[in-house]
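Aim 2 progress update. The chain analyzed this quarter is reproduced below.
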Amino acid sequence: MRTTPFAFAIAVILLVALAAYAPSAAADQHSGTWKMNSEKSKYSPGPAPKELTVRIEADENHIKLNADGTSGDGTPLHVEYDAKFDGKDHPATGLPNADSVSVKRLKGGEIETQHKKGGQVLITITSAVSKDGKTRTSTWKGKDAQGREINNVVVFDKQ
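Predicted C-alpha cells:
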C-alpha cells in the first residue's frame, strides 16, 4: 500500500501536534521550584521558617513534594511525600506531628492537602497558583503539636 505525499504530510503534522501537546498536557501549574516569600507570608503562631524551598512534580493523578529549609529556631527542615489525588492517606516524612497526607484537587486547580497523625486530620492546607503562574499561596488551618490554632498564609515565588 502506497501513501500519497498529501497523506504523509498530514500524518507528520498530526505527529508533531501530538508531540507538542503531550508535554503540556502532563504539566501542572503547581509543578516547579517555589521559594517562600517571607515578607508576604503570615504565620500564626510563629515563628516562621527562616527559609523554605518546595519542589513539586505534579500531573493530573499524582503529586510528589520535597521541601527543604531552616525552621525559625535554626533547625533544618525536610518534608517529603509522594501521593495520588485520591483522598487516601499516603506516608509522609518530616512533617511536625504528622505521619501521612491525603491530597485532592479542588475546583479552579487548587490542591487540598491534609496532614494526618494516625488517620486524624491535624492541618488542612489549600494551595492555589496565581493566573500568571508566578505565585503559589498556601493557606494552613488546624492545630500545632501544642494544640494552638494555626492560621498561616504562606506565599511562594516561582524560581
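The longest strand covers residues 120-129. Strands lie at 32-36, 51-58, 62-70, 76-84, 90-93, 100-105, 111-117, 120-129, 135-143, 149-158. These observations will guide the mutagenesis experiments scheduled for the next reporting period.
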